[in-house]
Specification:
Pfam families: NAD_binding_8 (PF13450). By secondary structure, this protein is of the alpha/beta class. It has 16 helices and 16 strands. Helix content is about 35%, strand content about 15%.
């Protein structure tokens, strides 16, 4: 029987391990932390009885993952929960753009932009599964649905600032801009429309759900399936060098390129080592977890029904702020993402006390305290919010990086979505998962297709590893 070691138990590492085990490989997962999950961990961070997601929280790409959908994870305890409204984007006028799972319902709330929203996202939503099957593989693969890619490509390659001109109303432009800001890069650069288009289409196809019992449930379900398949997981096992990795036919690393470089050292070919050293990390997150009495007093009541709320004002304000953050300047009013997971999953709350998830986009390696900036942005759209706060826990870039070495400089998405890295990461190569060391692969969010609890980077890397085993066999 072939053997494999997977270093790291984030959703990609676990997805890779499951795929290998399903193909008869004996798999051992090594996790440095005391708990599995990587970016899908959940814990009581503020007060007892309130469950917070530590990083990844809302999962349109997880529910729509071409690989995870092939697994019967419901059998292992994974259950998706949906809020009444997927996402809201309030404006200072009191209006809010509302993203519903239904394209038609979303369009109906956007006035004169409704027909334009329907034309932009109707076809993308209907063809999302085929499109995702191509886009969530390495770019070097021959597309299975070339016509759909030809339709998507011209729009995806546009800067978000250019595509935003398609909409005429402040609500329509802001709603798209808030989703596009998930690219974590300045919105006036080519290809920054791609993430906004895909996440929106995924939401219209599958919604923006949360995992019942916290994002930890995704990792727990994958781990339970792996165990059923005969795989093992060891926590509290830090890998600092190749000497810490048990002998195996293949090794997969759910790690950032710089962390892999430290471990693999001189074994890496010089060209790969140079590429890993040059790999660019993007802006950081500044996360704030709140315990809130009675929920957030949103000025627009529809925001109180939305699982996700984007706080950034109009599109132009968002674009200006993201440009400043990418340039290393901390804005007074950062873009803030709010997660109200308890609306769909009430078991995370304790009576009228609710967990509130928030993070701001801040410069890479930011060393200041953005807590007040986050509170002020919420207060801007929810007057009286401060009076509802019972407890606060803040995690800046340094603390995030200490909790997970893959979050280099506070970058929680595994690398900057520059024009090149958005599709060619971590290096330009026919096999982006290969490290140049026979049988050793990267499988983290720093490989295609990038960030998200979809497991596709792990699946793709495992496929590459299985091809290697067949060649050896």
């Amino acid at each position: 029987m072939s053997t494999a070691v997977v270093v790291g138990s984030g959703p990609n590492g676990l997805a890779a391990a499951v795929h290998l085990a399903r193909h008869g490989v004996e798999v051992q997962v090594l996790e440095a932390g005391d708990t599995i999950g990587g970016g899908t961990r959940s814990a009581e961070l503020t007060v007892p009885g309130l469950l917070h997601d530590e990083c990844s929280a809302i999962h349109p790409m997880g529910a729509g993952s071409p690989y995870l959908r092939t697994l019967d994870l419901g059998r292992y305890g994974l259950s998706w929960r949906w809020p009444d409204i997927d996402c809201a984007h309030p404006l200072d006028s009191g209006e809010a753009g509302l993203l519903h799972r239904s394209v038609d319902t979303t369009a109906a709330g956007l006035g004169e932009d409704g027909p334009r929203w329907r034309r932009m996202f109707g076809g993308l939503t209907d063809g999302f599964d085929d499109l995702a099957a191509d886009l969530m593989r390495p770019i070097t693969n021959l597309p299975r649905h070339p016509l759909k890619l030809m339709s998507f490509g011209p729009r995806a390659l546009l800067p978000a600032t250019a595509l935003a001109r398609w909409w005429r109303t402040d609500k329509g432009r802001a709603l798209f801009g808030g989703v596009a800001a998930h690219t974590y890069y300045r919105l006036d650069r080519p290809a920054t429309s791609a993430v906004g288009l895909m996440i929106t289409a995924a939401g219209h196809r599958y919604g923006w759900p949360v995992a019942a019992g916290g994002s930890q449930s995704i990792a727990n379900a994958l781990a339970a399936m792996l165990t059923d398949l005969g795989g093992t997981i060891s926590t509290g096992t830090r890998v600092r060098s190749c000497r810490d990795i048990p002998p195996a036919d293949i090794v997969l690393l759910d790690l950032a390129p710089s962390v892999a470089l430290d471990i693999l050292g001189d074994r890496l070919p010089s060209r790969v080592a140079r590429a890993y050293r040059r790999y660019r990390h993007g802006p950081a997150a500044f996360k704030v977890d709140f315990a809130i009495e009675g929920g957030v007093p949103w000025a627009n009541p529809d925001c109180g029904r939305a699982g996700t709320v984007h706080l950034g004002g109009g599109f132009d304000e968002i674009a200006d702020v993201e440009r400043a953050v990418a340039a290393g300047r901390m804005p007074t009013r950062p873009f803030v993402l709010i997660g109200q997971q308890y609306l769909a999953d009430p078991g995370r709350s304790n009576g009228s006390l609710h967990p509130l998830y928030a993070y701001a986009h801040v410069p890479h390696g930011y060393t200041g305290d953005a807590t007040e900036a986050v509170v002020a942005q919420v207060e801007r759209f929810a007057p009286g919010f401060r009076d509802r706060i019972v407890a606060t826990v803040s995690s800046g870039p340094a603390r995030l990086a200490a909790s997970n070495p893959n979050y280099v400089g506070g970058d929680i998405i595994g690398g900057a979505n520059t024009e090149t890295q958005v599709v060619l990461r971590p290096r330009i190569a026919l096999d982006p998962y290969g490290t140049g060391i026979p049988g050793t692969y990267l499988c983290s969010a720093s490989t295609p297709p990038g960030a998200g609890a979809h497991g596709m980077s792990g699946y793709n890397a495992a496929q590459a590893a299985l091809r290697y085993l067949r060649r050896q066999g």
